[in-house]
Amino acid sequence: MLDFLGIGAQKAGTTWVYKMLCLHPQIHFPAGKEQHFWDRYQYVLQGRDDYPGNKPAIQNYRAVFNLPANSPHLQKKLGEITPAYGILDQETIQSLYNHYPKARLFYIIRNPIERAWSSALMALKRAEMEYHEASAQWFMDHFHSQGSLQRGDYETSIRRWTAVYPREQLLVLPYESIALTPRLFLAQLCRHLEIEPYYDAVSDEVIQGRVFAGSGKALPAVLRQELESIYNDKIHALSIYLGQSLHWL
Which intervals hold domain Sulfotransferase (predicted)? Predict the structure, then answer.
């Protein structure tokens, strides 16, 4: 049975969270971190025929979490973390709920300006380009791409998920806590996933280890200005929606 899902956000520390949860004796990821099933399954639900490769089948996904009777992981919480799930459409979320209504969800939010910059740098690498080869316009085009804009619109994502799942099943966590208070971050996550606290037994060296660190390229002022024009109003609205101060502006 699928017990939990990490639904994002992209470039918000989900690989570190996966590494930490893999250490927990009550957690198991039957197929690793990212299965990318539900973002692909959208093609099936939408009746589209342009999906590259074999269309995903729900019975194959369910089989991943139906462990055999002799599995040593039968008593553990089973899950996956796929950041692309944060921007699923509501029809797909409803389908997921129909199969797994009790799944616990968590969503890590990061300053969308910094997230968009980190995502653009990742896209640059995937395009096999060097930093000096990309113009300011290249970065701006990426910032305004549908994928980048959707991944930085946390309020819309949260509203879409909680229109289907009860709000108490979705835990929203701040990315900054991973660096500032990682043990508190993990304690909150453990409570939400209904597993025992464990990380007092894990060394600071492991807890504070960086995973898939970015290039460290500073965000140029002209590009920051562009991102602020996109996200400042969204950050303010999200702060009101969540009822908490977001120190991103």
Answer: 4-198
Environment class of 231 (CB within 10 Å of its CB; exposed 0-12, middle 13-18, buried 19+): buried
Tell me how many degrees the CA angle 62-64-70 measures, rounded to the nearest 5. Answer: 115
> What whole-number distance in Å separates Cα of residue 7 and Cα of residue 98?
17
Q: How many CB atoms lie within 10 A of CB 168?
A: 9
pTM: 0.94
- In this predicted model, what pLDDT tens digit does every residue of 107-141 receive, in sequence order? 999 999 999 999 999 999 999 999 999 999 999 99
Q: How far apart are CA 229 and CA 106, in angstroms?
A: 28
Which residue, among 96, 63, 77, 89, has the nearest Cα to 4 in the 3D structure? Answer: 77
Tokens of 169: 């099943």
